[in-house]
């Protein structure tokens, strides 16, 4: 039986001031497919994913995370979650209804503890997708989204209690305390994670590639195109996934990854990883040690859209 009403991560939506560069980045460098351009709003899909889109870009004066969207099993699950959230005192942005965004579906939006807009939906039209071929260095799908929080312990509790996410692993520093909580809603090690940061913001969004070779080729392509590499290539201990992090044209952090752990729910026990051990951040030792300078690169700007629903 499912432990969470959430089945999977669908997409994340961002607003950016340099809209044209962001669209060019996803389309011509990151390897996504443009699905629809509504004039100031562009939808991008990952070729290997059945989701209608993995990221939506909106033109705006200020940068913000517009939304993080999740899937639910069916309309009844959507309605039940909405009722449960209301009973727990969560104010909905809107009641469950037919969605007007690409792919349609049935869903609703609400604010999380820190004011990010969250959407949960079902019955979204399945996109015609395809198998990504060997050496094809483009994303298969959106892997996970990581959120910065000044109070990650409270965020962890909120996502566990309100959306049924489970803790997979924790990153801890002996002097600072817990730095990272990895949360799952299915067998994937994490669909979201909560990172300790100075303010609420998008820490990074991660896209999965076909395998190690495709991941390295994709990372190399970004390097040759002149995009700023923050960290990588390497391999984390928690989740056992590969990583290379880049800044996009608007200063958001985007990650290429592959081989994220799959969890056996009956046997998995969360671990606490010591970040003072360099093996925790990078098993290979190729990406360079995580330090305060790399961490600051992922703090991002303070989100200007908290408790304000996006216009689309």
UniProtKB/TrEMBL annotation:
Ranges in coiled-coil conformation: none
Domain VOC: from-to ranges: 8-123, 141-259
Gene3D superfamilies: 2,3-Dihydroxybiphenyl 1,2-Dioxygenase, domain 1
Pfam family, one: Glyoxalase
UniProt-listed SUPFAM superfamilies: Glyoxalase/Bleomycin resistance protein/Dihydroxybiphenyl dioxygenase
Superkingdom of source: Bacteria
Protein name: Oxidoreductase
